[in-house]
C-alpha cells in the first residue's frame, strides 16, 4: 500500500501487479521496451483534420516498426483506411536521408522514418508527402500518387502554398518553387557560397528557438518570405566516425558562447522570380530572428530578439521591407520565446500574445496596432499553450500543476474559462488539433494509468470515434505517486517496486533532468516505464523539478540565472531529503542519480559537489563545459562569457572534476551534433589527469538520440549494472 502523508502527497496513483502481469522484474521487458520505442510505435501521430472536417489524416507505424504510413479516418463512417505506405513509393529501395535532412530531424528530435511530414491543400484533396529526398503528391479522390519532377538532389522542408498551386522547398541551399499545373521547377534564389543558404532555418533557430522553418508563404500564395543564413565567420566543428577512419569528417557551423553566430536576414520574393526585397530592422541590436508568421488577413509579422535575450520586439513588415514595431518586451534575466504567438485573429483585427510581465504567463489580446485590449487568460490559470482561435473563442492548455495539462476555452470578448470536453478522470496531459473550419477536433490524452489515446470530436465535444492504434501495451502500469516536496513544494514523483514490501528499506535512484524548458515530473504513463523497470530491481526511483524548470512562474524559473551549479543540485537534495522524511523506506545511505543531456550534466555535477548525498552517478550526453555549448541556450541563462566568467567556471564540470570520489559512468554518442562527443572526452581526460576512477561508454555512430533497439537494451543493462554495484539492492526486493 502506498502511503499518502499530508501536503506532501496530494495524489497517489497506483496499480498493483495482477496475476496477468509478468513476473517482477520482467526478464524480457527491456527487449520489448526497446523494440517498441517504449510502446509508442503503432500509435497515431500528427493527426490532421481535413479543412472541411470530414476526415482526419494521420501517420502510424507498425507496433515494432519505425516507418510511418499514411491513414485516413472518415468522420461519417468512423472507418479507417490506409492511404499509402512508403514501401509502395520506394519500390524496394532503401530510404535515403541527406546529411542536411538528418541534421534537421535531429533538431526536431525525430527518429522515425517513412512519412514524417504531411501537408494538405486548401480543399483537402491533395496531400504533400516528402520521402527519401523526393516529393510526392497524393490525390485523395483518385488515390493516385504523383512524384514531383524536381531536380536530382534532395528537396528539404517542402511546403504547399495556401492556394494549393505550388510547392516551395530548398535544394542545395537554393530556394525553389514548383508549379503543380505546369510541372515546372523554378529556382528563385541561388546561393553563391557554400556557407550561405536560402530557405532553411539556421541551427540556433531550430535547436534553441524552436523555429524549424525557413520559408513562409504569403496568404495568397503569390510571395515567399525566406531566411538567408550566412555562416561565414561561424566556427566549424567536425564530426568524424572513429569506427570508419577512412571516411572524412563532416563539418557543421556551431556557434559557441561569446563567438560569432550566423548572420540572418529575411527576404521577400515573388513566385515568378525577380530580385528579393530584404526586410529591414535593427539586426545589430536584435540579431535573432525568432519567429516569422504570415497569417491570413494579417501582415507578415516577425519576432526579433537581442543576443542577451533581454529585449524582444514584434514587428510588422510594411511596404518596401520596412518594419513597424507593434510590441516590446524586456526582462532583466531573459525572455522566453513562444512560437504559438503572435497569432492573428481570423479577421486581422488584432493578435494574441503571451507575456510574463506579471510574474506568470498570461495570454493577451492586442489590437491591430499592438495595444493591449484585455488579458484573456490570467497568470493564476497556469497558462501553457495556445491551441486554436476562431472568431468567437480561444482554446488553450493550462493547469496550476506543472505535471498536468488541461484544455479550456475562453470567449474573445473575455469571461471565465470553460473546460473543453471530453472530461478526463484524474490528472492527465491533453492536447488538441482543430480543423480549419473549427467544426472538428482531434483530442489526445495520456495519464499515469494510460498510454496516449487519440479521439475525434465535433465542436461541441460529441465523440465521433477513436483513431486506431496497433501499438503493444505495456505489461504493467507504473506504481506512481505524485508528490510535493520540501519548503518550496517542488513537484516530485515516487516509484516503488511493484512487489514492494512494507517495512523494507530500499536504495534510492534519482531520475533527473532539472534544467530549463523541460519538466521531468508529468502525469503521463510513458515517461515512467523505464523508471518502473528500474524500480522493480529493488529501488525506489524519484524525480523532482527544481527551480529553473518551467510552469511555476517567472521567479521560480529565473532562479538559476548566472549559474547552473548550485541551485540545481541544492533543489535535488532538498526534494530527496524531504521525501525521505515522509517515506522511511527510502534508504538515503544508498542513493544513485542518472540523467541525459542537461540531466546527464546534473547527475555528474551532483556526484561531484555532494558525494555525501549521491553515491553513484550515470551521466548521459552531458554538457561538460558551457563554453563548448551553443550561444543562444547558454548565453540566455549564463550571459556572455566575458560578463560572467565566474558563473561559467562554477558551472563547468571540469572545475570540479578533481573532487570525484564516487563511481561515475559517462555515456555519449560519438556522432552527437548537439552536445558534441568531445564533452565526454574532456571530462574523462580531466578525471584521468586528476587520478579519479570513472567509466566512459561511447555509443559509436549514435547522436543525441538513441533509437536503435539493441543499443537501448544494452544501454539500460549497463545503467542497471552500474547502479547495482554501488547500491546493492536486495535480490527479489
In which range does the helix fraction lie? 10-25%
**What is the CA-atom radius of gyration, in angstroms?**
26 Å
Query: Total helix count?
Result: 13
Please tell me the overall pLDDT. Answer: 94
Query: Could you give a short account of the major beta sheet?
Result: 9 strands, mixed
Distance between the termini: 15 Å
Strand order of the largest sheet: 1-38-39-41-40-42-43-44-45
Principal-axis shape equals globular
What structural class should be given to the helix and strand makeup? alpha+beta
Given as residue ranges, the uncertain stretches (5+ residues, pLDDT < 50) are 1-21
Number of strands: 45
Description of the molecule:
There is one protein chain. By secondary structure, the chain is α+β, with helices and mostly antiparallel strands. Helix content is 16%, strand content 34%. The protein is built from 13 helices and 45 strands. The strands form ten sheets. A nine-stranded mixed sheet has the order 1-38-39-41-40-42-43-44-45, sandwiched between helices. A hairpin with a 7-residue loop joins β22 and β23. The longest helix has 19 residues, at 709-727. The radius of gyration is 26 Å and the shape is globular. The two termini are 15 Å apart.
Question: Short description, anyone?
Answer:
The chain is an alpha+beta fold.
Amino acid at each position: 500500500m502506498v502511503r499518502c502523508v499530508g501536503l506532501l502527497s496530494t495524489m497517489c496513483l497506483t496499480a498493483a501487479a495482477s496475476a496477468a502481469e509478468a513476473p517482477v522484474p520482467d526478464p524480457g521487458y527491456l527487449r520489448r521496451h526497446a523494440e517498441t520505442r517504449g510502446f509508442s510505435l503503432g500509435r497515431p501521430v500528427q493527426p490532421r483534420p481535413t479543412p472541411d472536417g470530414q476526415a482526419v489524416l494521420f501517420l502510424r507505424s507498425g507496433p515494432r516498426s519505425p516507418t510511418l504510413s499514411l491513414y485516413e479516418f472518415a468522420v461519417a463512417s468512423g472507418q479507417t483506411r490506409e492511404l499509402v505506405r512508403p514501401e509502395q513509393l520506394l519500390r524496394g529501395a532503401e530510404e535515403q536521408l541527406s546529411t542536411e535532412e538528418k541534421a534537421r530531424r535531429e533538431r526536431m528530435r525525430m527518429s522515425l522514418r517513412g512519412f514524417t511530414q504531411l501537408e494538405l491543400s486548401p480543399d483537402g484533396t491533395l496531400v504533400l508527402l516528402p520521402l527519401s529526398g523526393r516529393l510526392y503528391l497524393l490525390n485523395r479522390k483518385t488515390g493516385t500518387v504523383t512524384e514531383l519532377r524536381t531536380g536530382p538532389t534532395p528537396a528539404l522542408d517542402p511546403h504547399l502554398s495556401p492556394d494549393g498551386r505550388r510547392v516551395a522547398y530548398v535544394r542545395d541551399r537554393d530556394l525553389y518553387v514548383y508549379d503543380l499545373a505546369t510541372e515546372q521547377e523554378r529556382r528563385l534564389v541561388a546561393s553563391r557560397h557554400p556557407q550561405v543558404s536560402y530557405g532553411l532555418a539556421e541551427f540556433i533557430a531550430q535547436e534553441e528557438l524552436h523555429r524549424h522553418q525557413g520559408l513562409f508563404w504569403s496568404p495568397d500564395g503569390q510571395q515567399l518570405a525566406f531566411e538567408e543564413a550566412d555562416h561565414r565567420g561561424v566556427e566549424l566543428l567536425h564530426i568524424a566516425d572513429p569506427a570508419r577512419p577512412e571516411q572524412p569528417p563532416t563539418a557543421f557551423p556551431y556557434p559557441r558562447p561569446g563567438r560569432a553566430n550566423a548572420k540572418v536576414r529575411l527576404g521577400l520574393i515573388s513566385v515568378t522570380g525577380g530580385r528579393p526585397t530584404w526586410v529591414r530592422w535593427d539586426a545589430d541590436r536584435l540579431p535573432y530572428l525568432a519567429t516569422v508568421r504570415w497569417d491570413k488577413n494579417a501582415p507578415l509579422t516577425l519576432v526579433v530578439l537581442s543576443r542577451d535575450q533581454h529585449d524582444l520586439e514584434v514587428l510588422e513588415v510594411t511596404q518596401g521591407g520596412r518594419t513597424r514595431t507593434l510590441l516590446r518586451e524586456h526582462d532583466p534575466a531573459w525572455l522566453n520565446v513562444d512560437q504559438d504567438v503572435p497569432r492573428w485573429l481570423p479577421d486581422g483585427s488584432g493578435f494574441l500574445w503571451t507575456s510574463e510581465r506579471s510574474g506568470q504567463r498570461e495570454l493577451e489580446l492586442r489590437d491591430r496596432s499592438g495595444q493591449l485590449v484585455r488579458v484573456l487568460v490570467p497568470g493564476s490559470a497556469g497558462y501553457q499553450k495556445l491551441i486554436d482561435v476562431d472568431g468567437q473563442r480561444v482554446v488553450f492548455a493550462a493547469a496550476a500543476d506543472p505535471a498536468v495539462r488541461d484544455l479550456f476555452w475562453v470567449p474573445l470578448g473575455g469571461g471565465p474559462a470553460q473546460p473543453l470536453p471530453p472530461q478526463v478522470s484524474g490528472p492527465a496531459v491533453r492536447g488538441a488539433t482543430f480543423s480549419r473550419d473549427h467544426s472538428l477536433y482531434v483530442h489526445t490524452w495520456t495519464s499515469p494509468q494510460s498510454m496516449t489515446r487519440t479521439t475525434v470530436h465535433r465542436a461541441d465535444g460529441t465523440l465521433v470515434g477513436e483513431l486506431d492504434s496497433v501499438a503493444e501495451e505495456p505489461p504493467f502500469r507504473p506504481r506512481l505517486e505524485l508528490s510535493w516536496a520540501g519548503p518550496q513544494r517542488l513537484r516530485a514523483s515516487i516509484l516503488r517496486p511493484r512487489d514492494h514490501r512494507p517495512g523494507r528499506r530500499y536504495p534510492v535512484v534519482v531520475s533527473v533532468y532539472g534544467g530549463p524548458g523541460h519538466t521531468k515530473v508529468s502525469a503521463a504513463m510513458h515517461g515512467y516505464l523505464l523508471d518502473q523497470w528500474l524500480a522493480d530491481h529493488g529501488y525506489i526511483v524519484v524525480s523532482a523539478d527544481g527551480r529553473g524548470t518551467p510552469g511555476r512562474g517567472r521567479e521560480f524559473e529565473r532562479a538559476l540565472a548566472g549559474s547552473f551549479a548550485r541551485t540545481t543540485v541544492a533543489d535535488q537534495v532538498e526534494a530527496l531529503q524531504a521525501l525521505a522524511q515522509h517515506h522511511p523506506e527510502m534508504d538515503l545511505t544508498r542513493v544513485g542519480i542518472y540523467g541525459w543531456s542537461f540531466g546527464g550534466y546534473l547527475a555528474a555535477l551532483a556526484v561531484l559537489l555532494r558525494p555525501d548525498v549521491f553515491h553513484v552517478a550515470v551521466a548521459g550526453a552531458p554538457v561538460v563545459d558551457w563554453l563548448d555549448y551553443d550561444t543562444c541556450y547558454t548565453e540566455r541563462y549564463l550571459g556572455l562569457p566575458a560578463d560572467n566568467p565566474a558563473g561559467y567556471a562554477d558551472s563547468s564540470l571540469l572545475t570540479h572534476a578533481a573532487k570525484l570520489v564516487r563511481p561515475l559512468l559517462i555515456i555519449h554518442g560519438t556522432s552527437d551534433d548537439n552536445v558534441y562527443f568531445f564533452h565526454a572526452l574532456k571530462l574523462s581526460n580531466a578525471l584521468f589527469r586528476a587520478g579519479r576512477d570513472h567509466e566512459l561508454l561511447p555509443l559509436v555512430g549514435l547522436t543525441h538520440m538513441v533509437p536503435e533497439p539493441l543499443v537501448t537494451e544494452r544501454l539500460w543493462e549497463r545503467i542497471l549494472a552500474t547502479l547495482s554495484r554501488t547500491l546493492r539492492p536486495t535480490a527479489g526486493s
